Amino acid sequence: MTVITGVTCPVCGTFCDDIELVVKDNVITDVRNACAMGAAKFLNYATHRGLKPLVRKNGELVEASIDEAVKKAAEILADASYPILYGWSSTSCEATRVGLELAEEVGGVIDNTSTVCHGPSILSIHDVGISSCTLGQLRHRADLVFYWASNPWDAHPRHIERYTMFSEGRFQKSTWRSYVSRLRGFMSRKRLQRAANLVLRRDIFAAPEVKRRIPYSMFQKKRKMVVVDVRKTRTAEAADYFIQVEPNKDYELLQAFRRLIRDGELDVDEVAGVPVEILEEVADVMVGCELGVLFFGVGLTMSEGKLRNIDAALSLTRDLNLRTKFLIMPMRGHYNVTGANVVFTWQTGYPYAVDFSQGYPRYNPGETSVVDILNRDEADAGLIIASDPVAHFPRKAAQNLVKNPLIAIDPEITPTTLMADVVFPSTFVGIETEGTAYRMDHVPLPLKKIVEPPKTCLPDAEILQRILHKIRKLRRNVN
Amino acid sequence: MPRLKVSLLTGRTIDQGKGKEMGKLSKEYLESVVICQMDPNDMKSLGVKENTNVKVITDFGSVVLKAMKSARTPHPKVVFIPYGPWANVIMNPRTHGTGMPSFKGIPGEIEPAPNEKVLSLQNLLKQFRKEN
Question: pTM for this structure?
Answer without folding.
Answer: 0.94
